Every structure is written in structure tokens, then in C-alpha cells.
Amino acid sequence: MKIYCKNTETYVSVIGGEKVIDLIPRLRRELPFSPICARVNNKTEDLCFPLYSPKQVEFLPSDSPSGHRVYVRSLCMMLYKAVKEVLPDTQLRIEHSMSSGWFCRLLRDGEPVEVDDKVADDLLAHLRTMTESDIPFRRKEHLTADVIEMFRRQGLDDKVTLLETLHELYTTYYRLGDLSDSYYGPLAPSTGFIRDFDLRPYKDGFLLFAASREKTDEILKKNPPQEKMYKAFTDQLMFNRVIQVKNVGELNTAVKNRRTAELINVAEAMHDKLLGRISDQIAARRKEGGAGIVLIAGPSSSGKTTSTKRLAIQLMTNLIVPKMISLDDYFVDREHTPLDETGDYDYESLYALDLDLLNSDLRRLLGGEEINLPTYSFELGRRIERHRPLKLESNDVLLIEGIHGLNPELTGAINPDNIFKVYVSALTTLKIDSHNWISTSDNRLLRRIVRDYKYRHTSALDTIKRWPSVRRGEEKWIFPFSENADATFNSSLIFELGVMKAYAEPVLRDVPRDVVQYAEAYRLLRFLSYFEPIPADQIPTTSLLREFLGGSSFRY
Q1: What is the mean pLDDT of residues 60-86?
Q2: How far is the C-alpha of 100 from the C-alpha of 97, rounded, in Å?
Q3: Cα–Cα distances in angstroms (integers) from residue 205 to residues 38, 117, 444, in the given order
Q4: What are the beta bridge partners of residue 198?
């Protein structure tokens, strides 16, 4: 039997039952890296995947997107084992991403356990011991009823709740020594593959990094803990506790108990309240003579457009008249647009905008003058002349939505007192379980897949292809400036993934199996399989989610 290795573009003879990892010594000279996982027929699998029939295999390093997820999941299971050995009466809860790491808490009887330098050092020492011991991660598959009882004995009640709502006959899990855990993706072959990690005490928990101590110092210098982001996440976690939906198992239980309408109504009311508070902050700043311009920024598919429209309504309740302009109309002519690393036009670059014209127009508007708004034609790739006069009256405020709103260079010629900045992002706090969080970027990617298919007739394949470039742009132009915001609006909705399931699954299934993007489509489909479907007919027409699903009462 022969296996086709995509890395080397060669066929390799194997004996039925050999594992993917057994091929590595035969290809060592031709592989320029040490693999941590592989794509087998364009599905990400662990290196212990058995080979019983011809397959295409592509080995992946730990710095690839799929490889990094495998690395982090493996590190998290090691951390779980370290916690059980250092503090056996505590529970580990991995909450959310933060500062290029993950914020974690230790709980005892439901209360946070302080993580000081000594606890962090003890955990690190146990992790290093595991690395040197090279303990295998053993993939198992047993009857779900047996796995539920095993998890119940380990005190993993959230995993029990999830499995009870999924009704699968068999469940896959991993063993590390005498400890069991489940993850929604493959792990490394053994702990010896996980060599770079760090822990830093933070607030009432700690930050986990998949990096060496020296690298962590560099990360924190470049991207220190984001206090405003932390507060937004913490506020949402408190909200989750109040409505008794902290993880997917509890969400599924709430749906089956017909609490869907309650969850939707409360989550939408929370959005209204948050936007109302931001409107009140803007009104207070205006009384002090500032905030003539409100900039709304955020990453792709964070819901900036609907957030801006709903904020405009809240401002009117404060007797402030909102007027909106689009940064898209300030694009430079196409031939002057910067190029990205692939040689394509980089429309996400700050310098794709005519900053001089923008700042000139804003100064004139704040000075009480009338301007003629530019109009950019994407078809022609240049500005065209149209009569679009704009003037700000005494009770007007100018709303500007765009990805660069938090970048001080965007409005460098404007007095900062005249600027109020709002950061919008889907800061997802719902977890699959205590050791498996939901990535905010996955949430946004699913939003974008659904929206692009509905409004732009773009396939999931094309959206997935484009996503790495989008993420690079966010890392460069958006995330470094998030702490510049005067207010943060968390646009995530506790129920949204259950609603998007019915919209996203058919589109993801159309991704062909013979392309590498199938691995991502398959991963997202598996992720969505954890959610009980929620009908969209109860979603109000003003919901931010309607920006992606359709049926909004707002015009876009």
C-alpha cells in the first residue's frame, strides 16, 4: 500500500496499520521541520492516526494554524494534569484569549484561588517534568455512557452536561497518565512535543502562553494585558452566570427546556443597555465641549455597522443628532493604493486612505464649515464628483465607522478631546467546557461565511481562503490599538452559534474535499455539531445578528 506525501510529492510504501508518525523517519531528510500533526485526506489528524488504505498525507509544523491549535490543546491538557497534582482540590477553568495567551482561573468551591509566583512556578515545574518524561497522549473511544461516568468521577460536570445533550453513542477522549479529558481536535503524540510554555499571575488568575519565558517577555512588552478587554470579558462572564448559561452544555439544556426566547430577549436587552451607556458617556463628554466625532472600529464581522446604527438611535434619545460618513469614500485612487506582501492592493492598510483630505474635512466640520463629502467608485477605482454637502449643527455628532478608528494616526490633526473612540468586537465568553474555549475569531469567521454567502454570493471556500489575510490585517491595524478606545462594546450574543448553525452548515458542506481549506470547513462543522439548533424566527429585526443572517430593519 502506498501513501502520497504532499510535502515531498512522493509515494511512500506502508504496511496496513502503521501510523502516520511511522512515516517521519523515512522522510526526515526531506521534511524541513518536526511535524506535530498531519492533514490526512485534508482532515487534521494526530500523528498516531492509523493507515489502513491509500491516503494523502501532509505533515504540519506547530507554527501552522492547525499545528498551533494542536500544540495549545496539548498544553492545556498538560496544565490540567499539573493543576490536579499541585492543587488537587481545585478546578481549572480556561476562560478566553488575552495578550496572545489565554486567561485562566483556578477555583475551589466555586471561588477563585489566588495564583501567586510560587503557585505559577510549581505549575511550570510540573509542566517541565511532563515534557521531559515524554508521556503519551492516548486517544480513546468508548461508549458515551461510560465516558460520562468517568468524567463525573473526575468532577468534570460541564463535560457531563455537554455529552448528555449530544446523545452520541460513542465519544472520543484522551488519556494522559491516569487522567482523562476531551478536546474538539487532535493532540500531539506525547508531552515531549510541548516544550515552550509560560505562566504569569494576572488579576484573580493567570495567563498561559504557548511560548518560552524569553518569548513571553517580548509578547507582553509588545502586547501588555489589555485592561479594558479584560473588563469586557469579565462583565460578560458575570452575565453568563446570571442567566445560567456558561457553556455549550448549559446552552443546549436551556434550548431543550424552551428558554430560547428568554435568552434572546435578555441578550438583546444587554446590547441595548451597553450601547445606552456608551451614548451616555458621549453625551457627558459633549457637555464638556468634546466628542464632536465618534469613531467606531473593530475587526471583520464584529458587527460594526449595526452597532453604529443602534448607537445612533441611543444618541437620539440623548437629544443628539447623529450624522454618518464612511471611510470608504476617502480611499486614494487605486494606482496609489499600497500593495501587500503578495503584490495585491492592500485596502486594509491605513495608507489606502487619503488622510490629508480626511483630516482637512474633519477640521472644517468641527469649525462649523460645510464640506462636500467625497464619493469613491470601486468600479472605477477612483473618486468621482457628486454633490454631497455636510455641515454639523450644534447638537450634531459625526459617526465614522471603519477598521482604523482607534489608530491615532487616522485623525492625527484633530484635537483628541474632539474624538470619542468605540471598539466593537465579538468577545465570546461561552465555552464548550472548562478546558475548551470558543475562539472569538471562529465566531467572526462563521458570521462572515454566512454573510458573504447571502449578500455577496461568495462561497465558504473563498471566504476561508481570504480569512488568513484578513487576520493578518487585524493583527497589524486593529488589535494593537484596542486599548485606545474610550468604550468597548461586546457584540457577541450568547445564543448566536445555535442560530447560525442552520445557516453555516450547508455552506460549509459545499467546500470540496480535494482542497486544503476542507480541513477548516470540517473543523467548523465539527464545532457546530456541539450546538442544539435555535430557530432564527425569534431574533428581532434590530438584532446585530441580522446583519449577517438577513431580515434586518436597518438599511446597509
Answers
A1: 97
A2: 7
A3: 34, 11, 27
A4: 209
> What are the pLDDT digits (tens) for 18-34?
999 999 998 988 899 99
Torsions phi, psi for 3 (to 5 deg): -110, 135
Output the DSSP codes for 344-359. Answer: SB-TTSGGGB-HHHHH
Contact at 8 Å (CB) between 530 and 490? no
pTM of the prediction? 0.93
- Residue carrying C-alpha cell 460513542: 170
Separation between Cα atoms, residue 278 and residue 228, nearest integer Å: 14
Contacts 24+ apart (CB under 8 A), 466-472: 468/65, 469/340, 470/300, 470/348, 471/441
How far apart are the C-alpha atoms of 476 and 455, rounded to whole Å? Answer: 27
- What cell does 356 get? 490629508
Looking at residue 121, its amino acid is D
Which residues on adjacent β-strands are paired with residue 137?
A: 176
- Assign 340 a pLDDT band (cuts: 50, 70, 90): confident
> What's at 272, amino acid-wise?
D
User: Which DSSP symbol is given to 259?
Assistant: -
CB neighbours of residue 518 within 10 Å: 19
- How far apart CA 294 and CA 289 sit, in angstroms, is 14
CA distances (Å), 117 to each of 108, 188, 200, in order?
A: 18, 28, 8
Q: For 471-517, how does the pLDDT look when each residue is reduced to its tens digit (9 = 90+)? A: 999 999 999 999 999 999 999 999 999 999 999 999 999 999 999 99
Tell me the three-class secondary structure of 184-216, residue by residue: CCCCCCEHHHCCCCEEEEECCEEEEECCCHHHH
Helix then strand then coil, in percent of the chain rounded to 5, is: 45, 20, 35
If you ran DSSP here, which 8-state letter would residue 50 be given? B
> Among the residues of 303-391, which ranges form H helices?
304-317, 355-366
Instruction: Please provide residue 452's backbone torsions phi and psi, each rounded to the nearest 5 degrees.
Output: -60, -40
